[in-house]
Amino acid sequence: MRYSPAGIPIVSAKLIHESEQVEAGISRRVEFEMAALAAGQIAQQLAQEKLGSAFRFTGFLARKNRNSRSLIFISPHYKTLSK
């Protein structure tokens, strides 16, 4: 965990997604990795979680920074999934 200049806790992570999706009536395996960021109270909660655990994140995509074309997933909410 790191802190912003304003003292807000920030956690950077890599999300790994794997699922089966249906496209045009055909099942398709979807796998990808994406950079993610959590700030504030959720960052403090995530810092306490066990690495490699399964979660369901909700949030939005944004530019990694003002001048970037790269995306990052910003997560204001998550839920632990049982395996």
Textual characterization of the structure:
The two termini are 26 Å apart. It contains one helix and five strands. It is mainly β and 83 residues long. It has a five-stranded mixed sheet with strand order 1-2-3-5-4, covered by helices on one side. A hairpin with a 2-residue loop joins strand 2 (9-23) and strand 3 (26-39). It has a single domain, classed as Nucleic acid-binding proteins (OB fold (Dihydrolipoamide Acetyltransferase, E2P), Beta Barrel), CATH 2.40.50. The protein is globular and about 50 Å long.
Fold topology:
Blueprint: E1 2-3, E2 9-23, E3 26-39, H1 41-48, E4 55-63, E5 71-80
Parallel strand pairs: 3-5
Antiparallel strand pairs: 1-2, 2-3, 4-5
> Main β-sheet, in a few words?
5 strands, mixed
**Structural class category:** mainly beta
- Net shape: globular
- Mean pLDDT rating: 90
> If you consult CATH, what is the topology?
OB fold (Dihydrolipoamide Acetyltransferase, E2P)
**Could you give the order of the helices and strands?**
EEEHEE
